[in-house]
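CO-FOLDING WORKSHEET

Operator: S.A.
Ligand of interest: fe (ii) ion
Run index: 589
Mode: holo prediction, single chain
Checklist:
[x] sequence pasted
[x] SMILES validated
[ ] output reviewed
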Amino acid sequence: MNIIGLSAFYHESACCLLQDGRLVAAVAEERFSRVKHDARVPVQAFRYCLEAGGLSLPDVDVVAYYESPQKKLSRQLWAGVPEGDEELAWLDPHQPERAIRERLGYDGPILFFDHHQSHAASAFYFSGFRDAAILTVDGVGEWATTTYGRGEEAALEVFEKVHFPHSLGLLYATITSYLGFRVNNGEYKVMGLAPYGEPRFVDQIRQLIADGPGGQYTLAMDYFDFARGRRMFSPALCELFDAPPRVPESEITPFHCDVARSVQAVLEEMLMAKVRYLAGRVDSANLCMAGGVALNCVANGRIVCEGPFERLFVQPAAGDAGGCLGAAALAHIQKTGQRHSDESLARIFLGPRFSADDVASMLAATGLPAHDFRHREADLLDAVADRLARNQVVGWFHGAMEFGPRALGARSILANPLDPGIRDRLNAMIKKREAFRPFAPSVLAGHAAEHFDLDHPSPFMLETCRVVSPLALPCITHVDGSARPQTVERAHNPRFAALLEAFYRRTGCPMLVNTSFNVRGEPIVCTPADALLCMGRSGLDALVLEDFLIDRAMLPDTWEPLLAAWHSRRRSAFGRSKSAIEENLYTFV
Ligand SMILES: [Fe+2]
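OUTPUT RECEIVED:
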């Protein structure tokens, strides 16, 4: 049974392959196209899934699509077409099926599931729980923005929904926009900014949203303009705060920090109330969460610590890309009557992998020098740990790429958390991003409790907790004393765990700073060539490509101009219109 799960045409498109109940592959299109949050037909992700499963097109039994285009259209029509929008192609409910037929060449059965049903299934059926309460929260799917459900064995029931325009995700997105960050991208910046502020605007934010009976709540729509306009907020919001919106990239003032802190506080307050409501409706010790708001790891940390449930599973690709997992799981049940698996999703390394021989061929073709550690893993790890201990910043490329927004030791930039200057260096030279944003640590699971107030594994970096370490760890400790650790076990990522052990033997510190392997505004690297390009464009001191190690000093002088030319060529190709790229233009990139 070969089931392809597919999400597209909204925020981030992605594909996964469920093969005889085993999740074999999952990847977002952006990693191939190099266009961040690429929502176009996931042609390359689809091809990758076929390749990973050793399949050709006729082997696919069913394609499971993650939302209902007809239901979505009714909401789109209700909201109306923004003035001046003459491009109405997005209102076509047949677009997904046509794309699957024409662009992917697939002519077999297609199953459509509701957006939040897919989110709910992506959490419950991959949680390993036999029973659970299920909460999904995002901006909006078709009509639903929040759903409450229960799962038991193969059965999943959604028993209550909150409907658009009332939406916790859109409340947070509106404040994200007001604070000058990009909607659907900058929400985690608001979360990162919040601890720098005071919650002095909580009363104003509470005027934006009113709690309702059961799972319900309503937004005060006078303050919002997203339902029918071209902006997220109305002038009334600026009057409420008595301040204009922040101009993007302009200075961040204490006022902006205070607004961020206040919206985070109200989001947590609402989520805690709704989680308690759900606990009253569903007799289970387990909670599953998905939807973009489930990526708010600060709120998740509170739900774990203060909430009524004993266990929490957040699906690591909780946003719309991960909806493809739920659609595939639902299709499996529809086809077989059985849940695809009773096991918890323990690892999320489901993307492309490249062998050491692949890397050797690329290096030979480019003529780039590198240290060759093939068949000498211990020596490689010693060399990398040595560089990290000397405060070098290392690009780490190993094994199959992660699915979801977090780098978990397959496509990561690593650094020494004991280095007091590393945060500023990473922000300024490597990530080229805002100085206020904290970095996350990856810690050996067996040592986690010595450094973090954490009594359970956190393999996906989806919750925050208090730092209780005897070590000074300024880079990974946020201003409020919290961190967002990933616990690393040998069973899930042996080489990454071995690297942490090698670093621990040298320094007495069982953790590394782990940030995603990309520069600002670009998707996480996918291929060895992407990683080399990223090294050329950032201040990485060294790069590990499987069994090869390249020090910056080894790169020839001609390397950086060459990379710059390569990059601009690639950008200009993707900067053209979709039809030029996909249909008419012969391109080498
Ligand atoms: Fe969603």
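REVIEW:
Residues 571-589 have pLDDT under 50 and may be disordered.
The chain has four domains: 2-84+95-115+322-336, 163-314, 356-555, 560-589.
[x] output reviewed
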